[in-house]
Amino acid sequence: MATVISNERLGDGVYHLVVEGGNGGAMGQFYMLRAWGAYPLLSRPLSIHQVNDSGVDFLYHVVGEGTEILAGLKPGDKLELEGPFGTGFPHVEGKVALVGGGIGIAPLYYCAQELPESDIYLGFSREPFRTEAFRPLAAELTVDVGGHILDSVDFTAYDHIFVCGPHPMLKAAQLKGIAAETAGKRPDVYLSLENRMACGIGACLVCSVSCKDGQRKACADGPVFLAGEVLFHD
Amino acid sequence: MINTTATIAGVHFKNPIVMASGTFGFGREYGKLYNVSLLGGISGKGLTLHAKAGNPGVRVYETASGMLNSVGLENPGVEAFLAKELPYWETLDTARIVNLGGNTLADYVLGAELIQRDADARLLRGKPAVDMIELNISCPNVKEGGIAFGVKTPAALEVVRAVRAATRLPLAVKLSPNAEDIAEMAEMCEAEGADAVSLINTISGMKIDVRRRRSVFNNLYAGLSGPAIKPVALRMVHQVSKRVSIPVIGMGGITSATDIIEFIMAGATVIQVGTYNFMNLRAGSTLVEELQQFMAEENISSLDEIRGIV
């Protein structure tokens, strides 16, 4: 059992949840959260926003019944945390860009703490959030509202690019990685995928991802994959 | 001393709590969270002769007290299972059940033969790591095979007969609630030499995305599981157990010790836990403890006292 320290509304449907409890974790890993009984049936996977002294922080967007319940949590409320699960972003050397779209910025804050001097690109379709928290951690911070954040990123200028955001953005990042390679640069582009999950530990195969070498599990083999490995069907 | 043991075709279950196919992988992942040898048994992820990629698109959708899945039997195939997973199963002290599916009759038979050959080879070196085959003729999420065999009794019997001839391992047949007549199907399975029947598999269901005006699933329909189906499952276990003399393995929406007791009272010999594994990753160890506690509170010293009493 973990305890809610704070659950602050940052903007339209976006919340920052700080809990006491959990077992730390690496950048890009996630926890399965549950703050209810039998319904909704499934726990909700949320990526680690940061590891604090006594627990873990999460940044989430209210999209359905589960996150709606999470949004109602008050300091002192209890919730179940299972994790950390998944294979996160690697610790890398060289010039790094962290690129987040919308709620996809959530895991990148921890990356920014672990990889100081990264260039950080944050894109929002409407109201931006948490951008000022990123500023002191960034070599350079670029914020875009209403456009396409990937347009601001020169993929040939980095050794490693970490991307998290909606599916079309991940697919676009994959194409930009290929284009950079064609131009003679070879950035390692890592994508953090958000898939529906049931167990979160690799047993149910609900979150299967089509990859060049066959089916992989977003929860256990990922959620972070090298962009070149993933086959996007739509 | 509370006795929770059960036996099916010579296979010993230390308790009636078996993890259901498709929800437990091959046990490894949950094995990192608790000692899975506490369990009565494990039914592994459904296998087909050859590896299967499963269904594209959305694979899970929550419903009121239930869940629709359209995984489509993604699995590594029988041979990869025997090579990569059985060494882990050898380390477990629980009943190990292979769940076997197929696209064609020949697939079922070849799969069963491979498992039998492996069991024979292991018997020479020590002991087999497979205690039972659970024949899946009831997966609603694959276009060929699967439920096509499980709805029509003659088709089901052809598979059961052929697999029975291909293996000497204890054989349970997993039945579909979508069968035309599940009790008749169970009787016929018994007549064909099945050692047990497992029921129920998921109920065929649907979810429409009204904004996109289409089913959320590429295959249109998906399999409903979870607490929502428990009353249906319980009724079917009751009906079938009154009609057959072989053991019934009951499942469908079990999330508590009282749910287990209900299924045992309806006539089940052991039960399987599926969707609850997703609601509580430690479902197995939770239920083992709760069942002991409940039996102590209710002065039930053995499950035999209450089996089929309703």
TrEMBL record, chain A:
Cofactor binding notes: Binds 1 FAD per subunit. Binds 1 [2Fe-2S] cluster per subunit.
Cofactors: FAD; [2Fe-2S] cluster
Positions that bind FAD: R44, P45, L46, S47, G66, T67
One Pfam family matching this protein: DHODB_Fe-S_bind
PROSITE patterns: FAD_FR
Residue span(s) of domain FAD-binding FR-type: 1-91
Binding site for [2Fe-2S] cluster: C199, C204, C207, C219
Key words of the record: 2Fe-2S, Electron transport, FAD, Flavoprotein, Iron, Iron-sulfur, Metal-binding, Transport
InterPro entries: Cyt_c3_hydrogenase_gsu, Dihydroorotate_DH_ele_sf, Dihydroorotate_DH_Fe-S-bd, FAD-bd_FR_type, FNR_nucleotide-bd, PyrK_electron_transfer, Riboflavin_synthase-like_b-brl
PANTHER family the record matches: DIHYDROOROTATE DEHYDROGENASE B (NAD(+)), ELECTRON TRANSFER SUBUNIT, DIHYDROOROTATE DEHYDROGENASE B (NAD(+)), ELECTRON TRANSFER SUBUNIT-RELATED
UniProt similarity note: Belongs to the PyrK family.
NCBIfam families per record: PRK00054.1-3
Name of protein: Diguanylate cyclase
Species in which this protein is naturally found: Paenibacillus borealis
From TrEMBL, chain B:
Residue intervals of the Dihydroorotate dehydrogenase catalytic domain: 6-295
Binding site for FMN: S21, K45, G46, N99, N136, K174, I200, G226, G252, G253, G274, T275
Positions annotated to bind substrate: K45, N69, S70, V71, G72, L73, N136, N201, T202
Cofactor section: FMN
A GO molecular-function annotation: dihydroorotate dehydrogenase (fumarate) activity
Enzyme kind, highest EC tier: oxidoreductase
Assembly information from the UniProt record: Homodimer.
HAMAP family: DHO_dh_type1
Family, similarity comment: Belongs to the dihydroorotate dehydrogenase family. Type 1 subfamily.
Protein name per UniProt: Dihydroorotate dehydrogenase
Source organism: Paenibacillus borealis
Gene this chain is encoded by: pyrD
